[in-house]
Amino acid sequence: MARIIAIAAPILILAGLGVGGTVVLSKLKPEPEKADEAPAGLNVFAEKIREGNLEIEVKAQGEVRPKREIVVAPQISGRISYVSPDFIDGGFIKQGQLLVKVEAADYELAVVRAQSSVASAQQALARETAEAELARQDIKDLGLEDASPLARREPQLAEAKAALDAAQAQLKEAELALQRTAVYAPFSGRVRERDVDIGQVVATGQSLGRIFANDVVEVSLPLNDEEMGRLGLPLAFASSTEHPGPKVVFAATVGGIKRHWTGEVVRTAAAVNSQTRQINVIAELQDPYGKGADGDAPMAPGLFVDAAIEGDTISDVLIAPRAALRGDDRIYVGLPDEGKLSIRTVDLIYSDPKGAYIRSGVEAGEYAITSPIQAAFDGMNITVLERQPDGTVKTLGNKGAKDDTQTEETAVASNGGKKEAEE
User: Fold this and answer.
1) Residues 365-412: pLDDT tens digits?
2) Distance in angstroms (rounded) separating the CA atoms of residues 7 and 26
3) SS3 state at 51
4) Coil, strand or helix: which one is 27?
5) SS (H, E, C) 136-190
6) Which of 119, 313, 319, 413 has the maximal Cβ count within 10 Å?
7) What is 227-266 written as a DSSP string?
8) 304 sits in which H/E element
């Protein structure tokens, strides 16, 4: 027993000294200083909300096509004897220019035969007129008052006149067929394709080629109901001097260069597309190969173009960065002096890559947060950062008053274990 006490006593003494020392040290430890400032919140980037004018613009795409395009076809049949050197794929033609000519010999002979028939009919009418005059004189000399029309040769005279009219009609028909051996361009334009050549026999109505007018081209632009409302266009719109259509800027890459052409909306389609539920707005460009061209680049049929339709201008709207918009109608606003986040519901007009356009809900000069924030709530602690033109980042609020500027990398890294504040 004495041996056990001899072993345990030192152990108990050492344990007591350890506990006592711990208690003494804890009593002597100084109280931690209380921080005067609240812990810094999540670093977020923000941009000022500004006031400006909203120029409404609607984007669309479409294919350029000529306003007038026809199939060139003869109204008579025969062998091709002439083809204009301009009547080739891509050729320029003028109104009234001879494009194709069909051999006219058969039709010239038909004219001669018709002229002969007219001469015979005229001679027969003259003879019948004289005989009718003699018959009327004989009836008068005989004192007959109830002579029949046949005795007065009235039917014979009418038949002769009808025969002359028929002969003259045949002559006009033959002359018309002779004129139709030459096919002329009904308007100035360009040749899309040619399907015949000299020596080929063609039938009535057979395609000789396709031509289109180059005075006007048009683009059909599909828009939905919201876009139509934004432009203020009714479903049955037609431009006039009093109510001109919106201006349209077309763009396409031609020859590796971005080209632009300026036209206008002239009308809307007659009906809504039953499959897409959109309505086509027709825009035109005048003189696409001349004054309407972009330098040496015309807006040729077949081009697929982007179109920017310009609407009205709305004055004094609030403009926030597009990245600041959360959902359809919310914006996170940073309050730099308070270091807090404020969630606002706004009256959004519409948004595009250039910004979100707002009627109310925020004020000009407030800071719209552009950084992504998870689990955001009203009153959340944040530190508002603003990018400067020189690439540095300025801390706004109390820290900003000390002119605390840093690089963006430093600002992001200063979050420590918090979520990185990136745009």
Assistant:
1) 899 999 998 888 888 998 888 888 887 888 887 654 444 555 555 554
2) 30
3) strand
4) helix
5) HHHHHHHCCCCCCCCCCCHHHHHHHHHHHHHHHHHHHHHHHHHHCCEEECCCCEE
6) 319
7) HHHHHT--TT-B--SSSPPPEEEEEEEETTEEEEEEEEEE
8) strand 304-320
